[in-house]
Amino acid sequence: MNSLYYLPWIPALLIMLSTMIAVYSLSKPKIFTLAKYLYYAATGIVALMLICLLMAFVTCKFQYSYVYHYSSVDLPVLYRIAAVWAGQEGSIALWTFFIMIAGIIAVNREEQLKQSFLTILGLVSLIFMIHCINNNPFAYIWDTSKNFPVNIIPTDGAGLNPLLQDFWMIIHPPVLFIGYALSTIAFIYAILSLLYNNYSIILTAYRYVLATVLALGAGIFLGGYWAYKVLGWGGYWGWDPVENASLIPWLISIALLHGLILQKRKQVLVRANIAMAIGVYVFVLFGTFLTRSGVLSDFSVHSFSGAGNFTDLLLFLSTIVVLSIGLIIYRYRDACGKVLENNVLSKENIMVYGIAAMLFFALFVTIGTCMPLLTRLLSQPSTVRESYYISIVKPVGFVIVVLLLLATFTKKLPLKIRTFVIPITIASGLTILLYIGQTIHIFPLILMFVSFFIIVTNIKGLFPYTHLNVAARVAHSGVALLVIGIITSQTQSLDYHTELIQKEKKTIYPITLELVGMTGGTKNALVFHYSYYNKDKTITTPYFIDTRTNQLFREPSIDYNILYDAYISPVEYMSGYDKLTQVMLKKGEINTLGDITIRFDSFDVDRVAMMKGNAIVYAQCTITYKGTQYTVKPGVAYNNDMRQDIKAMIPGTNRTVVLLDFDVRDAIVVLHIDAHDNAVLPPDSVIVDISFKRLIWLVWLGTVLIVAGVALPLARRS
């Protein structure tokens, strides 16, 4: 009997009982303690569930479907631990646990509304526990797949995607899930504000919103560095749906954070704050549904955006949206704040402009992310290009930077011109310094100058007219530094695409690179001799076909330096034997391979075999050998997912032609043709992308300052 399979039912029942008692305690407060302890017990069982799942991964219990699909015997223990949250089942269980921990902290800090708070918290937690039951991590492999005999435990698992076998896999997902969990608290306080018609309640969520911004921001930044370090394309943000699913609630939570500050100071933006607090949570759930239900799986490079049962979360999301809109409409007249003053450049109005810019940006990112769904309603689903997002980032980014600058001076306007001499001089000097020897583009130049101006004016004591507190100074300076790092790394970097022949050195100043060869084993790696000025070393870059995904896995080598990161990413490795014997052809294309000229004419599909449930595909080709033309038809036969090559002989020789790969839709074939006996084996070679990422460390430093600035207020007691 699979007793662990029923473990998620226990916390679900405890949460249900806790919620019922919490409702009853509204009239009988003395029994609230029982409701709270039942919720504690449920949290403890969820923790036990995660511990059992962790032990199943560590001890290789491959009878569990989830463990089988995300682990293997040869997987290091550290990555077996990280594999707990690598897929749907484990990550949702971890998210549920964080929700319950955040809820316990909030309940213990709440004094007036603890019964109502625990009631809503219990309902939310129950939905997630039902989701854990529907996507049970302890299901046996033979119960989820017909390909495994009952009660026969596999000796090995499918393994973890190599892209996830990285240190940041241990940190990045849990940090994001903490942010997702914390967004629940602000949502609950928003609902309570509407239910009790008391809009000071939402202000209680301020510290939880701070923590949400901190966790989501840290998770996003860690993910950006992970992408830069592992994926090999040299960037840190690709506008992938999974990335956007985290970015949208983070943008809204930043807007909410500033809105709560304004509400506390001036009693304004009451309706907006309620809507934003609910919106953060709604977009957390909506992003989860988009990226994990499989509806965008064709448009996301992330491996965990596969199928799953998300009907319960979709119903929950729909219910939240309908009830929240209904409550807001019902309380619309009551939930009104004061009117802001008419001074266009007042401190409060500048914050409102910033909130509007964040929400505007979040809206356009949402539209871009949902475009495959929107276009599917009209025609063939398609996604927007990166240029769509860039077209929005530039103006919105510029507006935000200008607002950060204006926010610095609003306390003591108007200012005298001479007060700007020092910051203008320093900002101009730093901007000129970074543009020496670089191509000048007006927009990035202005944006960099304004960003440096923000940093200078936020340095305490250097400029006497700044009014921001230390946390705001640090966070705003981090944003400015991030902008500078994006400008230098995107507009001042150098990119090269070149081929390296084995044992031949190639210099792309200031580095010299030489291909040594490839290591053996199941996970091959390319070996290079690398020189940077007077620094010589041997570097390796993983380059192999992952048997789990049947995809080529490549990882870059990064040499971190102050001015430039030297970023070396292999694109395509070609062994001498493959160059001698392999050729790729489009239909009608002619190519020469050694002493043979070959043309791909057409595909020939065996219809009779296909009617019997099998498939046989031939590639009809014309070969010219020693002045004579021959027709050859190499092919492949599929029988119950088993592939068998059908080789074709070149007449008059003992050499064969093999169909290695093909694409019927695009009419492309990859052929192997045996070399003649006296053929000379050419050297191996590799095509590499070599980039010099200028001052990209400013991006990472800027993100650290943003996180530090958000974290500082959390260190205060009140």
Structure description:
- The chain is α+β, with helices and mostly antiparallel strands.
- Among the domains are: 1-165, no CATH class; 415-492 and 697-718, no CATH class; 494-573 and 684-694, Sandwich (Tick-borne Encephalitis virus Glycoprotein, domain 1), CATH 2.60.98; 578-673, no CATH class.
- Helix content is 50%, strand content 18%.
- It is built from 20 helices and 19 strands.
- The strands form four sheets. Strands 10, 11, 12, 13, 14 and 15 form a six-stranded antiparallel beta sheet that branches.
- Strand 17 (656-663) and strand 18 form a beta hairpin.
- Helix 1 (9-24) runs antiparallel to helix 2 (32-58), helix 1 runs antiparallel to helix 6 (114-134) and helix 15 (421-435) packs across helix 16.
- The radius of gyration is 30 Å and the shape is globular.
- The model has no long low-confidence stretch (mean pLDDT 90).
Rg to the nearest angstrom?
Answer: 30 Å
Taking the sheet with the most strands, its summary is:
6 strands, antiparallel
Helix % is 40-55%
How much of the polypeptide forms β-strand, as a percent range? 15-25%
Distance between the termini: 51 Å
Number of helices: 20
Q: Regions with pLDDT < 50 over 5+ consecutive residues?
A: none
Overall number of strands: 19
Q: Given the C-alpha coordinates, what overall shape results?
A: globular
Q: How would you state the average pLDDT, rounded?
A: 90
Structural class: alpha+beta
